[in-house]
Amino acid sequence: MFWKSKPLWGSKTRLKSNYDAVIIGGGLHGLATAYYLAKEHGITDVAIIEKRFIGFGGAGRNTAIVRANQRTQYNVPLYKEALDLWPVLTKELDYNLMFNNCGNLNLMHSEAAMKSARMTIATAQFHGVESHLIDAKQAKELVPALNISEDITFPIHGAMFHPPGGIVRHDAVVWGLAKGAAKHGVHIHQHTEATAIHTEGGKITGVTTSRGRIHTPRVLISAGGYSAGLIYQMLGIKLPIAVLTIQAMVTQPLKPLLDHVVSSGAYHCYANQTLKGEIATGAHMDQWPNYTTQNTAHYIKHQAEALSDWLPCLRGVKFMRIWGGLADMTPDMAPIMDGNDHIEGFYMDCGWGYFGFKSCSAVGKYMAQFMASGNCPDMLKPFNLRRYENHQLMGETAELVSYTPNN
Amino acid sequence: MALILTCPVCGKRNGYEFRYGGEDKGPRPAEAGLTPAAWCDYVHMNKCTAGVLKEWWFHRDGCGSWFTTWRDTTKNLEVAQPEASK
Question: CA-to-CA distance for A61 and A299, rounded, in angstroms?
Answer without folding.
Answer: 17
